[in-house]
Amino acid sequence: MTDAPARPAEAAGPGGASPPAAGQTRKPPASPAAAVWRQFRSHTGAVVGLTVFAGLVVAILFGPLVWTVDPQLIDIRARNLGPTWAHPFGTDQLGRDLLARVLAGGRVSLAVGVTAMLLSLTVGTFVGVVAGYFHRLDGPLMRLTDLFLALPVLPLLLVLVMFFREPLAGAFGPEMGTFVLIVSAIGLTSWMQTARIVRGDVLVLKEREFVLASRSIGTPSRRMITRHVLPNVMSPIMVSATLGIASAIITESALSFLGLGFPPDFPTWGRLLFDAIDYIRDYPERVMWPGLAISLVVLSVNYMGDGLRDALDPRIRGR
Amino acid sequence: MAEPSAAPAAAPLVSVRDLKVHFPILSGVFRRRTGAVRAVDGVSFDIAAGETLGLVGESGCGKSTTGRAMLRLVEPTAGTVRIGDDDITTAPPGHLRRLRPAMQMVFQDPQASLNPRMTVMDIIAEPLDEHTRLSRAEKRDKVLDLMDAVGLSADFAGRYPHAFSGGQRQRIGIARALALNPRFIVCDEPIAALDVSIQAQVVNLLEDLQARFGLTYLFISHDLSMVRHIADRVAVMYLGHIVEIAPRDDLFAAPLHPYTEALLSAVPEHDPAAEATRQRIILTGDVPSPARPPAGCAFSTRCPKVQPVCRTTAPATVVTAPGRAVACHLVAGPAAAGSVGAS
What we know:
The complex is a heterodimer.
Chain A: H1 32-41, H2 44-66, H3 98-133, H4 135-150, H5 153-172, H6 174-188, H7 192-206, H8 209-217, H9 221-229, H10 234-257, H11 269-277, H12 285-312, H13 314-317
Helix pairs in contact in A: 1-12, 2-3, 2-12, 3-4, 3-6, 3-7, 3-10, 3-11, 3-12, 5-6, 6-10, 10-11, 10-12, 11-12
Chain B: E1 12-27, E2 32-48, E3 52-56, H1 63-70, E4 78-83, E5 86-87, H2 93-99, E6 103-106, H3 120-131, H4 136-149, H5 166-178, E7 184-188, H6 196-213, E8 216-220, H7 224-230, E9 233-238, E10 241-247, H8 248-253, H9 258-265, H10 272-277, E11 317-321, E12 324-327
Helix pairs in contact in B: 3-4, 3-5, 4-5, 5-6
C-alpha cells in the first residue's frame, strides 16, 4: 500500500453523479441466491418440472412404504392382468405387481442416472476447462477425448464388466458393486461431448477482456477458472447435465438388457421396458409405465435445467 | 544505451528500453515458425511520475501491444520495462504478482472488460481479494469509497454490469484499476468505445483522479484532440516504432516527422476560418504488414517526402530539443546527441 491514494473517501468526491453523504446507510446488496430463486420461480416450465421431479422422487422414496407389495413376489395365477384395484398398473407375465416394480426400479434408475450424470459432467467439465485454458494440454487432452469417442462403447463395457464385476462385488457387495460398476462405466464413456463443448466455450472466454483484466490484477489460474471461467460456461454444462440423465438411464437399461447390468429379476426402469417389449402386442400398457416414468424424469429435468440456466444468468434475470 | 536526454528531468517512474514484441507466424502441417509479426519493434520511452504520456497512432501500429507488454499481459520478446525500481520483464511469476498492484490497466471495451456474472461489488473487490487481507466489512467500505471516487452511487453495488451504460461501466473499470492504489495506469483507448458526450466525462474523471492520487498514465488513443487535452507529452507510433516523441504543445505546434504532420493535418479545426484553409496531407497506400516491414524507414512506403536513403537505412532517433526526439533522415539533430526510440 503506497501513500497518497490510501483513503479515497477523505478527498472530496469528483464532479461525478450523486456523491453519497458521509452518514448514508450502506446496506448490503440483496443475496444472489434469493434473486436466482425468484427468477427460477418465474419460469413456469421450471416450476412444473421441479414439481413433477419432486413428485417422482417422493413416490420412489416413500411409495414402497405405502404400497407394500413385494416387487419380486411371483404369483403365477395373477399373471398378465390389466389394471385392477389389487394391481393398479397390472401384473407382468410372472404375476409380479407392476406398480411395486416401477417404484422399486425408479430408485435404481434415478440413482444411476443422477450419479452417472454427475460423474460424466465432472470429468467432462474438468477435461474441457483444462484443455481450453492451458494451451499446452489442449492437444493431448483433446486427442484423448477423440480416442474415447472412437471407442466402441458396448464392447468396452463388456470388457469392463468382465474384469471388474467380481472385485467390485467383493468390495461393495453384489448390488452396490454392480451399481458402482455401471455408474462408472456410463460416466467414463459419456463425458466427451461435455468436454468438447466446454473447451470451445473456454477458448472464447479466455480471450475476453475481463480475463485479461483479472490477469493484470495477478489472479492465479485456479481462481481465474473458478471465478471467471466456470460461471460463464454454466449454460452448456446445464444442457449437458439434463441430457446426460436421460442417456444414462437409457444406457443402463441397454446394459441390463444385455445381461451386463443388474440381475434379470432386479427391477429397473430400463429392465421393465425391455421385459415388456416382448409382450407389446398383447399388453401395450405394460411398456407405458416405465416409459412414462423415464420420459417424465427426462422432461422435468430438462425444464429444470432450462429454468436454472436462465436464473443463473444475470442478464436474463433482470427481465 | 546512454541515458536519453529525451527523458524528462526528474527520475522517470516508468522506463521502457528497446521493447520488442514479436508474434510467431506458424504455418504448414507441422506448425513450424515461418516468420514473425513485429507488433512492437524496439520502443523506448520514459514517463515521469505524475505525468501523462499520450501514445497515438493508427490501428494496428502496436499501441495496445506496447501497453500490454509493459504490464506483462503479453510476453515481450526483448527489451526491459522498469516501473520504479522493479524490472517487470524479468520478474518471476511470484514476484510479478506482488508487483501487480503498482500497475493497472483500464480497458477499451467496458462491456467486455467486466465479468457479466459478477456484481459491481465483486468486480471492484476482486483486486482486494487477491492482494489484501481486509475483512468483509472493510472491503465493502473500500469498494463503496472507490465507487464514490469514480462517481457511482453506492446503491449500484449489487447490480450486474449489463444494467449500466457504457460510461458507467468504464467508471467501474476505473474503480477496479484504482482499488490497489496503483502508481501507474495504462489507459488502453478508454474512451474509444464511448459516446462523445461521455468521453469528456471519463477523461475529466481520469484527470481528477490523477490530481488526487498522483497517478501516472500511459494514455493510448487514436483520438488526437483527446490526447491534446489530457497528455503532457505525446509519442507517435507507426508500424511498431516510435517515430516522434515530444511535449504536447511542441508536437502540435510544429511536428517534425512527416507521419506526425500527416496525422495532425487530419484533425479538424474548431475555427471555421482556419478549417477552410487547413491543408490535409493525404497518405496513399496502406500500412505495410508488420510481418514484412519495409527495409529502411518503416514509413518510407507512404512518406510524401521520401528520399533514396529512407528506403535502405533505418533512421536513428535523434534528440532535437530537450524532451523531444524524432526518427527521420530529414531531421538533423544536434550532433552526437543521445538516441532514443526506434533504431
